[in-house]
Write a structure and sequence with these properties.
Blueprint lengths: L14 H4 L6 H10 L1 H20 L5 E9 L20 H11 L2 H11 L16 H9 L11 H19 E5 L5 E8 L2 H63 L3 H37 L8 H4 L2 H21 L15 H89 L6 E5 L10 H28 L6 H8 L3 E6 L7 H10 L4 H14 L9 E6 L6 H14 L4 E5 L7 H5 L8 H6 L4 H4 E3 L6 E3 L12 H5 L2 H13 L2 E5 L8 H6 L4 E7 L5 H12 L5 E9 L1 H7 L4 H7 L8
Parallel strand pairs: 5-12, 6-10, 6-11, 7-9, 7-10, 11-12
Antiparallel strand pairs: 1-3, 1-4, 2-3, 8-9
Helix pairs in contact: 3-13, 5-7, 5-8, 8-12, 9-12, 11-12, 15-17, 16-17, 25-26
Amino acid sequence: MNKESDFAMFSRTDPQAQKEDVIDLRAIAKLLWGGKWIIMICGLFGLAVGLFLASQIEPRYRATAKLLLGTERADVLRNEGVMVEEYFGSTTLMTHIEILSSTKLINRVIDTLQLDQGPEVTAETGELSAFEEFLVGVGLRQAPAPQPSPEVAAERHRLALIKNIGYGMTLDATPDSRVISVSFTSNNPRLSADVANEIAQQYLVDQLEGKLETTQNAVDWLSGRVEELRFKVEEAERAVEDGYARLSAESGQTLEATQQQTQALTQTLIQVRQELSAQEAQVARLTAAMEAGQDLATLTEFRESRIISDFRRRESDIVTELAAQASTMPENHPSLSRLPGRARLEAELVEVRKGILAEADRIVQAFRVDLQAKREEEAQLSAEVRELEIKAADQARDAIEIRQLEREALASQTLYENLLSRLQESTEEVSLQAADARIITPAEVPIWPLGTSERRTKAVALFGGLLLGVFIVLLLDRMNNTFRSPQQLEQMSGVNVLGLVPLAGKRLKRSDVVGYLKEQPNSSLTEAIRNLRTSILFSDVDNPPKKVLFTSSVPREGKSTTAIMLALTSQQMGKSAIIVDCDLRMPALSKALNVNNDDLGLLSVINGSASLEQATFVEPTTGLHILMTKPSERNLNINASDVLASHRFQVLLDYLSNNYDVVILDAPPTLVVTDARILSSMVDAVVYAVRWDSTPREAVIEGLRELKSVDAKVTGAVMTMVNESKASKYAYDGYSYYRGHYRDYYENG
């Protein structure tokens, strides 16, 4: 079974509460209060160690300088310049803190203050003392390494000095500001102030040098780039001029002139094509009219011809004359054709009309000639436009290259002008550079040393001592393997605690304890026994037990003394009682009562050599009947277990139960012999005695398991020899706690 901490004694007996993992602060406080002397002694020891260590600490002095970052400066050039102002947030402050603690800056501080040559740096000689040489000789210490060269030694000293300055330096950023506190701590007040001020000063120098270096690098770079761009601009402009010259030489005119000429010819060509379309439509219309025999007078082109007009007037005159002749006689008259001049008129009319057609045909031919000329003009214009377009396309291809050269030249010129302007500004900015920080509080030489280290050492030592004391108290409690409270006994054993019997005295014998019980009837011991008797009787209200067996795990548990006191208390309360000493190997009742006047006892009654009346001892003051086992009647050939398991003993036990109100059996320890298990089957109740803060837990658990293996009627347990003053320290509730705190209520004499 796993060991359980005594914290369990403080947990609640509520089953539901037992299932919960609850830390009882009152229990812890009570436990620590019980071990207060251990904690106090450890605390005093820790304080003494702290005082000793504090006395060995050298006084330390701290000096602090304050830097303000991000100071404003005049923008003379009205431009951002090469160095852009920083935004000072928490990240930027941490960056500057890293710069302040950098090895480069510390090296500059060392060189400026010549710290590597001052008394603050001590060189190791490498020589061993006589004792150290002895340790090397016997092999308890390694031999020192060979001495390094002067260069290596100087480098090591330098590194050690850098590390020491880094340890002594403290950098703090003030919240919600741009202020950094630079502190340095050493055992020399003047050195602390000098180093703090020099760190701040070297930081400003480093900032200024960094800006100057950056600006100068920018100026150098800009100078080189400006020179390169100047040559590039010249080459680009020269290439553009060469392109234009080549284009003029090849085409004889510019692309713009060609495009304008092409545009003019195109407009003319469009107009010619429109006229050609009109003429083609006119010729087609005239030709179609002539082929169809249409009246030529209906066509404008024919009406406008003077010749045709003359023919038409002559035709009209002839027709008029013919009409006049025809009016003298009827139509189709045979004599009409013989009229004078009529044939001539008709022939002339035919000729006139032929003349009209001939003239109309000549007019149509003239229009066709004009149409052919217009077609030739259109073809010529088309050829010229195509030639100009081809020429413009060739010139456009050459112009693309020229425009690309122009763009490159313009870009190079723009970049050149910008960089040239930046070069001039950067050159001026070199003379305007200033650090972005300033010292607002220089470090002063400290007057008083720091007391923080000493106070911290004392506080830590005191706290460590107290913590050690608490650990020891908890460790002792954890290592305890006994029972200190009835709750703990009930939880781990599973049996009820019937009562607690207090310790009457540390050095009292059994007979003295029995005498104390008789002399002090109102003492806390007597009340505890009465409480035990009441618990036993009320363990079975309907059938109060008459035969009660007392046993324990191991000897010297207070079992016999408790059994005697229970019997005496029952007798004092008017109940007939007898106690039987069943420990045939180591009888205890005779010693407890100082009875040595006869040799008759339990064994004599069982073997029939004496009657019960003869072997029973009657205590003279209380009248208690005691059946003891006398050492003189023991026989080595007799087995105690056989005697107790015999029929005669069982008959004797039944006889006693019928004649006495209470029969108490004092049995041997359960784990030592088997007698208690044999007797447990003959009694009405078994009371298991557990000595307070003494009996091992495993022994109690194992003893109860032995009894339960034979179905013993274990009524409960009794905690014996309880130190009430100590028990009150381990518990804050229960019978033992209140009785320990209110002992004056009893008449203890």
